[in-house]
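Write out the 3D structure for:
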Amino acid sequence: MTHLGLPETIATCLFDLDGVITKTAAVHEAAWRETFDTFLRRRHGAGFRPFDAHEHNAYVDGRPRAEGVRSFLASRSIVLPEGLPGDSAQQDTIHGLGRRKNELLLEKIHSEGVEPYPTTLRYIDEVRRLGLRTAVVSSSANCREVLRSIGAEDLFDVRVDGLVTAERGLLGNHTLGSTASASAVFEDALAGIDAARAGRFGFTIGVDRVGQGDALRAHGADVVVRDISELVGWE
């Protein structure tokens, strides 16, 4: 293992945005909760069962918006029309609910700001100093905007997010110039750990921000830390 806490074979590091680089995972969860609770209240009345943290982690976190909507609604046996990507936030369709979530997220980001995890940025600086390639990976279409807000856009050789995937048809990290076996993934979402395992990446670090360390290990994380500083022994 290197002093970065990675196998010697690793040449590229892929960092999830929300929850690993920035403290925006809770903002995403709040936007999802408001979106779904408003919908469920309208559909079932005052006695509706609210969207909870377990459902967020199991069905929504780390997934593209439309996929997250489908997954959660299926867990509640709710069927809605797919709709179209241009649906308004007022339409009860898969894409309509997704748009409402995104509008709420942007409102919260603009009103509350974005805060990075300083130890992650320090770690990325060290990774780059040692000549490893870096990528930011996010299911969000707002990745570039968030990176710009914390002055971190130049820290990454490659950005793979919702917009890049839509524009180029990417189904993963095919622009990194490095094989999956030589890449390390830093993820806080169970869906992200699943994707890393399915993609046969060389090393997976689960970053446990919400007390789900056992679940991260069960989903395939090679190492679980509460903060990236634990990999290098920083105080």
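The chain has ten helices and six strands.
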